[in-house]
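Human: Respectfully, please carefully check these tokens:
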Amino acid sequence: MPSTSDLASTLDHDQAVGRLRSSYERIPVGEPVRLAKRSSNLFRPRTELERPGLDVSGLTGVISVDAGARTAEVQGMCTYEDLVAATLPYGLTPMVVPQLKTITLGGAVTGLGIESSSFRAGLPHESVLELDILTGAGSLVTAQPSGEHADLFRTFPNSYGTLGYATRIKIELDRISPYVALRHVRLELDQLAPAIEQIVASGMYGDEPVHFVDGVAFSPAEAYLTLGRNSDAAVKTSDYTGQQIYYRSIQQRPTDFLTAHDYLWRWDTDWFWCSAAFGAQNPWVRRLWPRRWRRSDVFHKIVGFENRHQVAARINRRRGHPERERVVQDVEIPVDRLADFLRWFDLEVGMRPVWLCPLRLRGDTSWPLYPLEPGVTYVNVGFWGTVAIAAGAADGDVNRRIEAAVAEFGGHKSLYSDAYYDRDTFDRLYNVPALTEVKKRYDPDARLTGLYEKAVTRR
């Protein structure tokens, strides 16, 4: 029987959905339908809202957690930070917890979400049991793996809001121990794939179980896999929210212990390694930088300010430095091509370090807009920064070369950042014909922006 608090949460949720639908009805016919949401974890420019958008202000919480069934009902705009805070007291987490605290569950389900459990738990949308979606037609439908709206359920992942917005998502939860024991294993590039395949097949490395795995390539000569194991006890836990920096510890110590909470958010404090661009890794600056501001959303706001005002870019021009191209991407490469791709990337792009995270679909189900093959292990390669624009080159040239290389290596590129594909190539790679068929049913008047327009032309 639901508790009183669950009933109150359900009532609050129903009222929030009512406000959302009312805000939809107030948007004039012919005007685009968008969220009235200023924050984002996307890295492509966002068109500023000139008119009111959809009111999602009441859809940011957890409706209920069923610890016995290991499920949770969650509102679409709930951040993973708030979701984990609700589930961790039960020794539970979402099956996949993306690295940054302010990524929303709805955003991960309709876009990107990969983490160190993805080698066994797949992607966030694979743990969804059902979800309520406000469609482009203004209807609220409940989509499940089978039934009347199964087509919407299967096409929603990687649709990035082009089919609608999730208001309620019921997900599976996973068990997690109070601590995570870590091993940082240094490997040659050609040793990465065999080690990853062994872990995926057996869930073991050596004589110890592996519950989490990701890694970092600092250079072609220095790469690590970080193997995590659930643990009920810890000798001593590290704290990387203060003066110590997590990614540096990978090079400095072979083993480590973190609390479950700190493990889940180990990358957020320094935005992986990107906080260095703001001076936040300088020991003197770090002592003065308030701990509460050492988090990814603060750094993201600084980047947004720079994108709008070009302060650093103007200073660099005055100093005679070349213009810089933003290269912020996550790509999934088949594991057997990983070493070759990393060598190509280091030679042609030269950004270091890069993040490595194995992933594999949980079952034999394929997803129309997420063209990963069941039964194949991929490795997400993440790289985030800028490169100098060479003489005679243009902004975007490096990203275009990366897109071409990813295709040549049999990989897949996520769409949360800049994309440069021509229309025909994009439609083929991201199965836009399948999206178009479903969109005809749920957004017949094209109130929601198309996927190519969102991802490439930035409308």
Summary: The CA atoms of residues 234 and 257 lie 6 Å apart. The chain has a mean pLDDT of 94. The radius of gyration is 22 Å.
